[in-house]
Amino acid sequence: MYNLLVKDFKLGVNPWYLAMPVLTGALMLVPGWIYFLVLLYFCWITIPNMFAGFRTHNDLMFTAIMPVTKKDMVKARVLVIVCLELLHFAFAILFGAINRFLYPNFEYYFFAPTVGFLGLCFVMLAIFNLVFFPIYFKTAYKHGNAAIASITAAMLFAAGAQWLGIANADVSTVINDTGTGHLAAQSSVLIAGIAIFALFTMAAYRMAVRHFLKVEL
Amino acid sequence: MLALDIQNLNKKYDHFQLKNVTFQLEKGYIMGFIGANGAGKTTTIKSILNMIQLDSGDVRIMGKRMAEHELELKQDIGCAFGGIEFYTRSKIGKLTEVIKPFYKNWDDDTYYGYLKRFKLDENKKIAELSTGMKVKYNLAIALSHGAKLLILDEPTSGLDPVARDDLLDIFQTLVIDGEISILFSTHITSDLEKCADFITYIDNGQIINSADKEEFKASYRLLNGKESELGQVKDKLISYKINSFGFTGLIHAKDFDPASEIRSALPTLEEIMVYFAKKEEAYV
């Protein structure tokens, strides 16, 4: 398993994809932007390019002839993506904190970079993972449909959540509070978001394994 | 001891099926696995490697069932798929660094020995290697992790005659001490005339014959006769061609009467393949 992770990071993950979290994370500095987009760049750019690379380099066959189980192949690939997602989160959080420091009194129309918003971002990527992995591992090389479906699902959630944040005063008050007044509620959203991320990703992994075991290489 | 024992593999696709594929490879020998394009060579090889789900059948490698001991057995198998390339923009050294931790018996001295012997430069990218050098790199990897069974799918396809000859010499050297066995699929039959000990011939998903090379060829006769003589053997011929001099046809040796006036000769592997393919056409 560990060897598969090393293989993906050495051969499949271009160093640029490790720099992307810094570059897209820096977009958190744009005042008043739709910050869901920061993490969506990972889905729009890194995912299609990286999986196209795996296909171009015949990674599936390369890996399958080595002494590894199909289950571990799925586990490693899911872990690589989760690692990259967490890296994107880390830099989004870092630049989000800088945003709050730079613009302390900003009136946010869209969601502010708060702890609560971070929870919503975890839910967004949880939905992405839940849709992407099971579809992708039906073939383990066709990433187009999986990316379209998962990105659409994640964007629909982001759009819905953002609409709710604008239309509903209570949601806006809780999530956009940059002070400490709603920190408990925001922390609950964050914890729930992380739990959903973990649960959905685990479920995605199990479904992906079930699909991949039927794939003929 | 059998390096490879394949029993009754069956796999049905919409337009193709493997039917009761059965053959055995003795340890320390080279088996040529021949058949036309689309005959089922790669499907059989993928079945051996547990890459496709069989409808039925059993694959044993070194006496152990592949379905139950896949990880353990893959430590002892080296593979090369002709025409399929991996991470071509990576340097040999980098690819090897990634591959070697997967194998518990990896030996760096053996690896560097083969790099030297095959004149492979670790700083070259895979894309910069010729087709023959790519096969040699695959062999170097397989031999460095102590593979006892080499499964090579069309390794000589696309090679020039000199590179092919060089590779065939290497195959022969590898099996000399009796530890390594090679299953080597190809549609270039002249390669097998030179280096194979056994021949397994697959046609349209079915094994036609699997035997010692000489025995394999001796089980057929190539007949040359006048058109007027065709009637004597027509029903027993596998297939035949009519030309301006008469006919040429392939027949099972057991079906041919040596006392007949029709001229007969031992066919080459290529002639056997061609006449079996012609038989298929006749039924289409």
A few lines on this structure:
By secondary structure, chain A is an all-alpha fold.
What topology emerges from the helices and strands here?
The complex is a heterodimer of chains A (217) and B (284).
Chain A: H1 2-12, H2 15-25, H3 36-56, H4 59-64, H5 70-102, H6 115-136, H7 144-167, H8 169-175, H9 183-213
Helix pairs in contact in A: 1-5, 2-3, 2-5, 3-5, 3-6, 3-7, 5-9, 6-7, 6-9, 7-8
Chain B: E1 2-12, E2 17-26, E3 30-34, H1 41-48, E4 56-61, E5 64-65, H2 70-74, E6 77-81, H3 92-99, H4 108-117, H5 131-144, E7 149-153, H6 161-174, E8 181-186, H7 189-195, E9 198-203, E10 206-212, H8 213-218, E11 220-225, H9 230-233, E12 237-243, E13 246-252, E14 263-265, H10 269-283
Parallel strand pairs in B: 3-8, 3-9, 6-7, 7-8
Antiparallel strand pairs in B: 1-2, 1-4, 4-5, 9-10, 11-13, 11-14, 12-13
Helix pairs in contact in B: 4-5
Sheet bearing the most strands of chain B, described? 6 strands, mixed
Order of helices and strands of chain B, N to C? EEEHEEHEHHHEHEHEEHEHEEEH
Report helical residue fraction of chain B. Answer: 25-40%
By DSSP, the count of extended strands of chain B is 14
- Form type of chain B: elongated
Number of domains of chain A: 1
| Ends apart, CA distance between termini of chain A | 20 Å
Number of helices of chain B: 10
Q: How much strand content do the residues of chain A show?
A: under 5%
Distance between the termini of chain B: 41 Å
What is the typical, i.e. mean, pLDDT of chain B? 89
Biggest interface between chains: A-B, 19 and 27 residues
Oligomeric state as shown? heterodimer
Helix/strand/pairing category of chain A: mainly alpha
Number of strands of chain A: 0
The geometry of chain A reads as elongated
Strand order of the largest sheet of chain B: 6-7-8-3-9-10
Strand content of chain B: 25-35%
Stretches of chain A where pLDDT is under 50 for at least 5 consecutive residues are none
